[in-house]
Design brief:
This protein is of the alpha+beta class. The protein has six helices and four strands; from the N terminus they run αααββαααββ. It has a two-stranded antiparallel sheet with strand order 1-2. The protein has a two-stranded antiparallel ribbon with strand order 3-4.
Length: 123
């Protein structure tokens, strides 16, 4: 499931009401992350840096944010990405247009968080 933060909410709410709704939603995510992992500020900073790096196509920066090794699905096959060099080489096969779109559309306040971690889009 993808969530999109809309600047202009239906019904023409005044800017102050929109901002208040956003702050409440972000505060809820902060509380959720604090209860699961502590220190929501680190997660917010990471999320913002990841969105920026992906939107700018900074493969090296994204690679530096990844925990290795991990399994990726490339061309229908499970592939073990062992290090940053391998990630950068296969970046466009791992960080697909669908992944970029989901990340671009994702707002911090609507991330999904549970004991396993924090997820973007539909996981």
């Amino acid at each position: 499931m993808q969530h999109i933060l809309m600047r202009g909410l239906p019904g023409g709410l005044p800017e102050s009401a929109q901002e208040m709704a956003w702050r409440e939603a972000a505060g809820g995510m902060n509380a959720t992350i604090d209860s699961l992992f502590d220190e929501h500020a680190r997660y917010r900073s990471f999320f913002d840096a990841l969105k920026k790096a992906v939107s700018e196509g900074d493969k090296a920066a994204v690679a530096a944010m990844v925990d290795y090794p991990f399994q990726a699905r490339i061309d229908g096959k499970s592939v073990k990405i062992g290090d940053a060099a391998h990630f950068v080489a296969d970046y466009d096969k791992v960080v697909t247009a669908k992944v970029k779109s989901a990340l671009h559309a994702q707002g911090y306040e609507s991330l999904f968080a549970n004991w396993q971690g924090v997820m973007v889009g539909d996981g």
